[in-house]
Structure formats: C-alpha cells, structure tokens
Amino acid sequence: MIAYNNKVHFNPDDFPLVVSEIDFLSLSLRGINSNYKSDIVISYLKDHSIKSTWARANPRVTELLTLTTFPISHIEAIFVSCRQNFNFLNEFEKYFRDRLSLTE
Fold this sequence. Notes:
Radius of gyration: 13 Å
Number of strands: 0
Distance between the termini: 33 Å
Structural class: mainly alpha
Strand content: under 5%
Largest sheet: none
Helix content: 55-70%
Oligomer: single chain
Number of helices: 6
Order of helices and strands: HHHHHH
C-alpha cells in the first residue's frame, strides 16, 4: 500500500497497467484543445468532479470523460491509495500531465 509512506516515489515502471490506461486516455483525447485538459482529466479521475469553469472552457473533454467508458480502474486506484502520500501524488500527477500533453 502506498498511502502513508512518504518515502515511496512514483515510478512508472512499477505501474504498467496505470501507464497503459494513461496512454489510452492520452490517445483518446488527442487533438482536442488543451484548455484545462489535464486539470479536467485528473480532477475527474481523482475526485469525480470537474470545475464548471473548466467544463465550459473544454466541453469536449468533459463530455468524453463523463459519457465514455474508459479503462481507468488502475488510475483511480492509485489516486485512492496515495491520498495521504503527497510526494507520491505530486509525482504521479506530474507524470500524468506530461503524458497527456504529449498528444496535444
């Protein structure tokens, strides 16, 4: 478990299923404008919420996330298990943002 050990760092090689899901999401959202794209995706998968200003700025990403069934169970599990490990969470979110930005 990742939750309370702040000495654990996110290493994508340790989470191949998570990386696979992120890559699938990234490819699925390719070519959609980048307005808040990473913020929308991460917020939705982390907390199942999207700020209304982000949704208005990028309705296509919001629509795809809320109406499409993506394989995201491993990503969501990471967010649940590392809520208290801020270092791990920050490293994971940075990795996630970087992967999403590769297809903009």
